[in-house]
Design a protein that fits this description.
- By secondary structure, the protein is α/β, with parallel strands linked by helices.
- The chain folds into 2 domains: about 1-180 and about 300-390, Aminopeptidase, CATH 3.40.630.10; about 185-295, Alpha-Beta Plaits (2-Layer Sandwich).
- The protein is built from 10 helices and 16 strands.
- The strands form 4 sheets. It has an 8-stranded mixed β-sheet, sandwiched between helices. The protein has a 4-stranded antiparallel β-sheet with strand order 10-12-8-13, covered by helices on one side. The protein has a two-stranded antiparallel ribbon with strand order 7-14.
- Strand 1 and strand 2 (about 60-65) form a beta hairpin.
- Helix 2 packs antiparallel against helix 4 (about 105-120) and helix 6 (about 210-225) runs antiparallel to helix 7.
- The radius of gyration is 24 Å and the shape is elongated.
- The mean pLDDT is about 95.
């Protein structure tokens, strides 16, 4: 079956690229993907599968039933875009101003649609069921995964697999890692309020900018002086809104930022120390504060046994387009695939997609692009795992 599947996917490579380019030209933001969801649902019309729409919002769940006993494997692809103005100059660049597929989700959906179509054609050779999770809103908390799970997308599912194409990894490379592979995340907004006044009379005011500046520096000591040096964490102040006039002492400053950690324990410690520093500012500067601190995507934990299956299956397959299979380092970004991994044994791995000219821009950059050869690799890699899944043995 595996060889036949590979040949069918090769014959459909041009269609994968065609779909990717259409989606790239028509991106939609998280929670607003109505046209993309309709495009995906229309793709399955007339095919021998069960299609459920409006799952967790714009999510789509496709079930391919072999009619034979066996376990159920879910395979996931996301399809939302980002609020970025594209600067690639591609002939199929975004037609939606200020919106761009700058993370590869167009490619994820393109390879998954053609893989799913091919699996439907070959379902008599499968066992059990394959559930295709077309997920919206990966980029924006609370994310699309958690809502799809609440709507039952994992009912009856035994395991979940996911792929992310990576512009910073060489095309032909597939990377995996067991255990914690992507960070958990929190986001915060804090308003620090003092007492406004005239620049000539600071003694009659309480400068919120001074207090907020102390806060910006102090929170970095959480990473340098409160975390075990062997733990991983980061705090980023992404916005400091203190704009005013040259001779006016600001009465309030608003800050926004981002927290990442590789364990839930580290994430809890950072939040504890974060709040402690704010409480200290109250005593130190006589300010007040209003804090909105939200933990969202958990640490993404790959199941050890399933990830070993991913690595060994791909190594045994000898897929010619895959030149290297490596155990990679953990990745700093966060991923709401982590919610699936909290519910079912799961594995999330990477397919290199560095452009052929070697000029790569990171994900979320306005010039981000991928090598479209990576999409066939992704389809073949996931297809191989589906074909071999019937032989997977849990320890």
């Amino acid at each position: 079956m595996r060889q036949q599947l590979m040949e069918k996917l090769e014959a459909k490579q041009d269609r994968i690229i065609e779909i990717r380019r259409y989606l790239h030209a028509h991106p939609e933001l998280s929670f607003q993907e109505e046209n993309t969801a309709r495009y995906i649902a229309d793709f399955y019309e007339g095919k021998e599968c069960d299609v459920k729409t409006n799952i967790g919002g714009h999510g789509i769940v496709v079930t391919i039933d072999s009619g034979k006993p066996g376990r159920t494997l879910a395979i996931r692809a996301d399809f939302d875009a980002l609020p970025i103005t594209e600067e690639t100059g591609l002939p199929f660049a975004s037609k939606n101003p200020g919106v761009m597929h700058a993370c590869g989700h167009d490619g994820h959906t393109a390879y998954m649609l053609i893989l799913a179509e091919t699996l439907i054609e070959m379902k008599d050779q499968l066992t059990g069921k394959i559930v295709v999770l077309h997920q919206p809103a990966e980029e924006t908390p609370p994310g699309g995964a958690i809502a799809m799970i609440r709507d039952g997308c994992l009912d009856g599912v035994d395991h979940v697999l996911g792929i992310h194409v990576m512009s910073t990894m060489p095309t032909g490379e597939v990377a995996y890692r067991e255990g914690a592979i992507q960070t958990g995340r929190a986001a915060f907004k804090v308003k620090i309020a003092g007492l406004g006044g005239h620049g000539s009379s600071p003694h009659m005011a309480n400068d919120a900018i001074v207090a907020a500046s102390e806060f910006v520096l102090a929170v970095q000591t959480i990473i340098s002086r409160r975390l075990n040096p062997f733990d991983v964490g980061s705090i980023t102040i992404g916005s400091f809104d203190g704009k005013g006039s040259f001779n006016v002492i600001k009465d309030a400053v608003e800050l926004e930022g981002d927290v990442r950690a590789m364990t839930e324990e580290t994430r809890m410690l950072i939040e504890k120390e974060f709040r402690r520093i704010l409480d200290g500012l109250v005593k130190m500067f006589g300010i007040t504060y209003d804090l909105d601190y939200k933990n969202d995507y958990p640490v993404l934990m790959n199941d050890d046994n399933l990830t070993a299956f991913v690595a060994s299956s791909l190594q045994d397959a000898n897929i010619p387009e895959i030149t290297t299979i490596v155990r990679c380092e953990p990745q700093p970004p966060s991923e709401d695939f982590a919610y699936y991994a909290k519910e079912r044994p799961s594995s999330f791995f990477y397919v290199g997609a560095m452009p052929a000219n070697g000029v790569c821009y990171p994900h979320h950059h306005p010039k981000f692009d991928i090598n479209e050869a990576s999409l066939l690799i992704a389809a073949k890699a996931m297809g191989t795992l589906v074909a071999d899944y019937g032989d997977y043995k849990e320890e």
